[in-house]
From TrEMBL:
Keywords: GTP-binding, Nucleotide-binding, Repeat, Ribosome biogenesis. It comes from Aeromonas simiae. The gene is der. This is GTPase Der. Coiled coil: none annotated. It comes from the Bacteria.
Amino acid sequence: MTPVVALVGRPNVGKSTLFNRLTRTRDALVADFPGLTRDRKYGQAKLGELEFIVVDTGGIDGTEEGIELKMAEQSLLAIEEADVVLFMVDARAGLTAADIAIGEHLRKCDKKVFLVANKTDGIDGDSASAEFYALALGDVYQIAAAHGRGVLSLLELALAPHLEDLVGEQGDADEGEDEEEFDEEALARMLATGEFETGEEEEKQNRYADLPIKFAIVGRPNVGKSTLTNRMLGEDRVIVYDMPGTTRDSVYIPMERDDKKYVVIDTAGVRRRGKVHETVEKFSVIKTLKAIEDANVCLLVIDARETITDQDLSILGFVLNAGRSVVLVVNKWDGLDQKVKDDVKSELDRRLGFIDFARVHFISALHGSGVGHLFESIDEAYESATRRTSTALLTRIMQMAQQDHQPPMVRGRRVKLKYAHAGGYNPPRIIVHGNQLNDLPDSYKRYLINYFRKSLKVMGTPIRVEFQEGA
Ligand code: GDP
Ligand code: GDP
């Protein structure tokens, strides 16, 4: 369960400034979902091991009319979907009528609210903050978002303990850093003799073979997610869900196929067969983000009949940011003529060619063609993301890469790679140790990543390679 934190407050108090600061730690691509959210921005944030979703709600000031009223409604919806609200006020402007209106609303909401006074740089924070206690929302956290002052203590002292309580002990068993223990003496021996004991350490079988693979079906509205979910669940399965559900929660549906267990994370809302009516609000960005975080593998569904949009790319950005495996599903492939098919393929190459590690499937969820093969790619991506690889094997591959193509000389000395070991999985992380690694050019880093990818036959998941100076 990934908690959601909403930034709320009137315009200009510094919400986007704080948003950027919170999400920067994770190189967040900020998702912009035109038409759906208008003024909302979503980002992924990370605080230590704790991951959460941040929503910038735009702004409300309580006096909205017309289009602004619509925007305020969006903010209210974001509050509803959030687990925690950071209510921001402007310490320089002081308490305003709009703050009081928002505060009243928040007190009624039954949500955890932290009151944050921003822009306390260069003024007496304590006296400027005093009047905000009148909002009766407890402590006032003083920050200067633009300079970062107070942000860390807000996060560490207030937000983190609360979010940790929310997430509880239900940590994901199949996700983890799990620094591989390795035997340095054995490694030294191997490096000295050039003989690598790859066999014994290698764990072919998956530690979590008994756990189901969780896959999420994500994509923007109307690309065919519910049709695909139904199709993957199988023809004769009686679907009992009527999706009255909340807007923010996906439905988790266990299923089996070829004696393998899966859980489909359905973001679309499977409709009961025979029922024609559409669920009204079936697309929620937060629901999508939470599903991505919770899945092992994401099926990103794209509509072959429409061009690839920024929304498709935003969702993909979230999948990649979260380090999740991805399978690209181009749906509605039925009844297209060759010319259209060719155009779709070249557009895919052009816009999504950069994720060359993802399998692409052309399917028709409506008719079922190609759907069965999706499971092969799901299995492969999951296996790639969770496979254990020994230090010996990784070091061996690194050395082969080095033999095929020497790292460059820097200031008269050759950059030296010494050994590599696993630093975690899901997504796989490989840590390379060596000398002068800070001088290693990006092109060589990319070469190494690709070399690892090809040698390990990793498909469907990003690999992260980190470089550590020294032994
Ligand atoms: P939003 O409308 O609530 O998203 O507010 P913005 O983040 O766009 O900030 C509004 C203005 O306040 C911008 O000009 C920011 O540079 C400024 N601002 C934001 N944080 C701080 C701060 O900590 N100190 C000061 N002095 N100005 C800030
Ligand atoms: P969702 O909003 O992503 O869940 O999309 P739906 O599953 O509700 O599908 C949206 C529309 O696309 C519906 O009218 C479906 O019948 C249609 N659709 C879904 N999959 C296919 C497909 O493979 N081929 C065609 N031609 N139409 C499809």
